[in-house]
Amino acid sequence: MASNREQDMMQLQQDAVRRVMEMQRQARARVQPSPKEPPPNPTPPDPKPEPKPESKPEPKPKPPSKSGLLDGILSSTGLDKEQLLLLGLGYLLYKDGADHKLLLALLYLLL
Question: Pick from 101, 99, 72: which is nearest to 84 by CA?
Answer without folding.
Answer: 72
